[in-house]
Amino acid sequence: MCSSRRRGPPNTVKYKIHHQTVYRYAEPVRRSVHELRLAPRSGPLQAVKAWELQTPGTLSEARDGFGNIVHNFTVSGPADTIAITAVGEVQVNLQQGSGGPDSHHAFRDAPASGESRVSPLYFVGGTPLTSAPPEMQAFAAPFLAAGHEVPALLALADGIAERVRYAANTTHVGTSAAEAFRLGSGVCQDQAQVMVAACRAFGIPARYVSGYFYDPAATELASHAWADVCLDAANDLWCSIDVTHRCVTDHRHVRLAVGRDYQSAAPVRGILEGGSGETLQVNIAICPVVD
């Protein structure tokens, strides 16, 4: 339960997050290897105050080419249950203008000194999940014809939210942007991938973002997804657009990972030997806290 809804320092909000993923199997898994992007990193939009992962195996940690914190672990013996828990506190910083057009909504996401990371231009290339068929390109053209300043991006997001209506259980994690666009429905993952695909079709770098969205009225919380769109590749300047809520991201959003699409930013991925009859249970709790 949330014990407080007060904000911390000016222009910040701190959240306590508890995210548990439990896999159960009718036939035990003989061996499994898991890759997690379940640890948020500090950056221009947030500061990680504490974070802990609990898994059945020993964790190794690394950074991928997108700057994400990646953990791996192996379960080497038979297991009929695999539980992964992430707990921590993240302080979200409200965006401050950095000068120039759209500065109020822009943030600079440059690699830290000594860190290797792909160029923003890497996010122009499509993937099987983010290819844009001709009908999607025609749909996006009127929104992006005059450029991709923030008002144009928000108008595009609004158009996508109308074209790909939010509807649970109509798609799955392997659904592509093109498939969701033709279907006309999907969830936040699909809406974000359509946004990414539409921007890339016009040579605009865009990346998929996984994370959390705090909604005090929600009875059940789930992982969320949105899109980062690059406003200035030379200066690593980005704008973060939540298609589902038709807005620039704000104090309600906590970032986990970025990638070219869902596959490269998924919170949990794994390879199993054995383990038939899988069921999945995910529980997420987000509470505002005060120091």
UniProtKB/TrEMBL annotation:
Domain Transglutaminase-like: 180-245
Stored Pfam families: Bact_transglu_N, Transglut_core
Top-level taxon of origin: Bacteria
Protein name as catalogued: Transglutaminase-like domain-containing protein
Organism: Cupriavidus numazuensis
